Amino acid sequence: QVQLVESGGGLVQAGGSLRLSCAASTRTFSSYAMGWFRQAPGKERDFVAAVRRSGGSTYYADSVKGRFTISRDNAKNTVYLQMNSLKPEDTAAYYCAASSSVFYSSSYYYTKDRYDYWGQGTQVTVSS
Q1: CA 8, CA 106: separation in Å to the nearest integer?
Q2: Per-residue CA distances from 106 to 49, 51, 110, 121 (Å)
Q3: Which of 47, 69, 71, 96 has the most Cβ atoms closer than 10 angstroms to its Cβ?
Q4: 34: helix, coil or strand?
Q5: Max Cα separation, the chain?
Q6: How does pLDDT run along the chain (128 residues), one tens digit per residue?
Q7: For residue 44, how many other CB atoms are within 10 A of its CB?
């Protein structure tokens, strides 16, 4: 079992920045692909960003490309999501996810069903 704990959410004005963190309780953190998803009230949980085990490759939803950056520190068992130029439509609960599966295709990183473990979420609210 892997426990994931997100932090860093909050209320920010449009155009502002936030940095989310997700700490994982595992000694084999580097063996997990990591992703961030978000869910607004009444909507599906959508892919935001993901990073390979080594941190060498990253993937982003079109809606956040150029504004958000995912990174990981395998020595600290932590994955980050730096969010810049925030917009009101970024308002959602943000969830960290981990997968131990082998991803044969980059499309797997975008698919929430491929992830085994989820955090409890952290709320991000962007005011206009």
Answers
A1: 28
A2: 12, 10, 8, 24
A3: 96
A4: strand
A5: 41
A6: 899 999 999 999 999 999 999 999 999 999 999 999 999 999 999 999 999 998 889 999 999 999 999 999 999 999 999 999 999 999 999 999 999 988 888 889 999 999 999 999 999 999 99
A7: 9
Q: Which two tokens stand for residue 72?
A: 């990981």
Distance between the two ends of the chain, CA-based, in angstroms? 40
**DSSP letter assigned to residue 31:** G
DSSP string, 82-114: EE-S--GGG-EEEEEEEE-S--SSGGGGG-GGG
H or E stretch including 46?
strand 45-51
Q: Which amino acid is at 54?
A: S
89 is written with which tokens? 């439509």
